[in-house]
Amino acid sequence: MSAYRRRVDDPASIAARIKCFEPRSVDAAAWSVVEPWVRETVTLSGPTLHSQAANTLKALSRFALWAVDEGMVLDRESALTPQAIDRYRLVGMRALAPTSRSAEVSRLRHLARAVTKKAPWPAAGAQGSRQGLSPPYTDEEIAGYWQAAGMQNGPFRVQAMKATLALTVGAGARSGELFAVTADDVVDVDGIVAVRLGSVPARVVPVRASWVGRLQAVVGAAGVGPLVGSRRVGRDQASALLASFEYPGELSRLMVPRLRSTWLAGVLTDCGVAEVFSAAGITTGKALSDLLPHLPAPQTGSPGWRRLGGYP
Fold it and tell me: Does 98 sit behind a cis peptide bond, omega within 30 degrees of 0 on the bond before it?
């Protein structure tokens, strides 16, 4: 048994495992984008066991592919933060079983503490507070992006940028949903323009009233294909597309998470969530999820559904 432990704990064996690692069921082109960062980061974490290196490689590979798809830069100090890993736990691990999620998050947090110096990780054993979602863009920034969309190099980029803005700020589309929406997914629900997003069963989201005209113009220019066209494939498709757009340097970097937050901030304002928090005397909405099973099921076309679009 001791001989076996010496073999798997040997630094050269661990280094070879990191060098030869190849994730399963991952597109080769997508893996090539994150591969150097994943290998280097795991090496820097200093795994002492062969199994520890293997498990960390698997966990970090999945996280890195998700992060790129979300438009994040693979910089350890900005990507491996409590905020990013907590968001990954909430929205990026749905295919994993709950027990697998817990183990994977634990590995990522242990790794992040080992390889970051500036990221706001609490001391080991301390309870860290969850940081918020990406901050929304200002109205002035959104106006600047929309103006820049009409000035892109060629009709393909004009259409792609306008459609991206309309679907994210107007309807809260996620990165992975942008490229599947066609004109047939833009529907009328009792006089309200809405968009079908996501896989079966799709969710029907009312388009923000101020974005209806712009989305309808995008639909008219799209023809029979997707509203957002892209020649790139893979998990980093959305971030690569947004990086190709041109806009004034004084504007913030264009990212889908921030565009979605802009949509969500408008929705929460119209639905009076700030007033609910104030009246209830609470500062976080995490506990409210406990009440969801006891609330009426959401109905497409209901008064509450209409308020998501900014309608009275």
Answer: no
